[in-house]
Amino acid sequence: MTYLRITPALIVILGSAVATARDLSAQPGDAGVTAEKAPASGDAGATSEKTPASGEVVQAPAQSKPETERERASESPLLLPGGIRIGGLFDASYERVDRDDGVTSGKNAFRNYHHFVFLSRQGNDIPIGFNAEVIGQYFYELTARLWRKSSAFRLSARAGKIMVPFGPDPLFHKNYGGLSAIDQTLLPVVWSSFGANLRADALLRGFSLADDLYLVQGFDLSARTATLDMQRDLQSYDGARVAVGDRLSLSRGPVTLWYSFYWNPMRFGRRLLMQAVDLAIWRPAWPVLNRLALGVGVLRAHVSADSSYGTPDAISDAGAYYHFADYLWLRLYATNWLYLQARSGLMTFNNHNGFAYDSERADPSDGSHHNLALVAEYAGAQFSLSYYWNFEKVGEYANDFLRFMVMYAF
Question: How much is the pLDDT for 238?
Answer without folding.
Answer: 85
